[in-house]
User: Fold this.
Amino acid sequence: MNLPNKLTMLRIIMIPVFVLFMLLPIAGEADKWIALVLFVAASLTDMLDGHIARKYNLITNFGKFMDPLADKLLVCSALICLVELERIPAWIVIVIIAREFIISGFRLVASDNGVVIAASYWGKFKTTFQMIMICLMIANLESLYLFTDIVMWIALILTVVSLLDYLIKNKEVMRETK
Assistant:
């Protein structure tokens, strides 16, 4: 259990605590700020564990499996909480989660064929805008509602564009070999 894997596990442990502060009245008005700090901290561990693993050659099978899973659990948990709090339409969350399932399945098929599909710039932009969107929606500041809506639409567009980019660039993965 190296440092990157410990950071991944920490992120997973933070998720239920984050959800509690998002959905239960624990600390009054401070709930959303505690949830926001937890979300940002968990998101930063995602960047940090990958950086450390690559820099110090600490990449493990555990990390390859759990890191993307922890990331998806964090984002999906946040989005589902935001639907519950009526801060984002459910259909947008369905599109975002469906994209993650499709890409995960696509990567699994590619892996079975010995192909590694690297993250694209579109995917990185999508992730950045989704994280900003989630932070803005957790904070739920009336003065930023218009900006939050704009970021939400950009995140949605980037979600679809990044999906299409993956599928088009890697269409050979889905062709049957004889």
User: Anything to note?
Assistant: The chain has a mean pLDDT of 94. The chain has six helices and no strands.
